[in-house]
Amino acid sequence: MKQAASGEDGFTLIEILAAIVILSAVSLTMTGFFMNALSYAKGNQNKTVMVNLARNALFYMEKESFDPVQAYFLKDGHPLITPENCAMNDQSLFDCSVYSETVRNTQTLAQVLRPEINGIEYLVTIEYQPRLLDSAKPESRYLLPVLVKVKSSDSGRKRDIVEVEGYITDEAIR
C-alpha cells in the first residue's frame, strides 16, 4: 500500500474551526436582516389596523345626523371628540354619555373611540378642522372637515399615530 504524504491528510482542526466561525458570522448577520424585516412588517401591520380604525370612525361619523354633530363642533365650540371624555360604567364598559346630544348611540361611539383589536387597545380622536372650511363656497355649509387620529394606548411614539382626514357630509347631499 501506498502511504499518503504528510501534507495531504485532510483539513486541520484550525481550518474547520475557522470555517465554522465564518459561517456563524454570516448566519447571524442574515438573521439580523430577517429580524429587522419582521419588525418592519409588524409595524406596517399595526399601521394598517390603525388606518382601518380611523376610516371606521370617519364612516361612523358620516352616518350620524349632521345637525347635532355640526352643533357640537360649531355652536358649542368643542373641537374634539375624544375617548378621554368616556368614563367607565358599572359593567366595565366605557360610557360616552357626554356625547348623548351629538350621536344617537353612545355605546357604539365608545366602541368606535376605544376599540380593541388583537389584544391591543387603541384610542381614536376626532378633531374638527375649521381652517379647511372655505365659508365663501356655498357647499361648505354641507361639509365638516375632520381629522381622525388613532394611536395605540400602550405606546406614545410618533410612528404609532395615524391620521386620516375626511368630511362629514350633510344628509341633504348624501
From TrEMBL:
InterPro entries: N_methyl_site. The keyword Cell cycle does not apply. One of its GO terms (biological process) is establishment of competence for transformation. Signal peptide: none annotated. It comes from the Bacteria. The chain crosses the membrane at residues 16-38. This is Prepilin-type N-terminal cleavage/methylation domain-containing protein. Keywords: Competence, Membrane, Transmembrane, Transmembrane helix. The keyword Transmembrane helix applies. Pfam families: N_methyl (PF07963). GO terms for cellular component: cell surface. It comes from Paenibacillus nasutitermitis. It is found in: Cell surface.
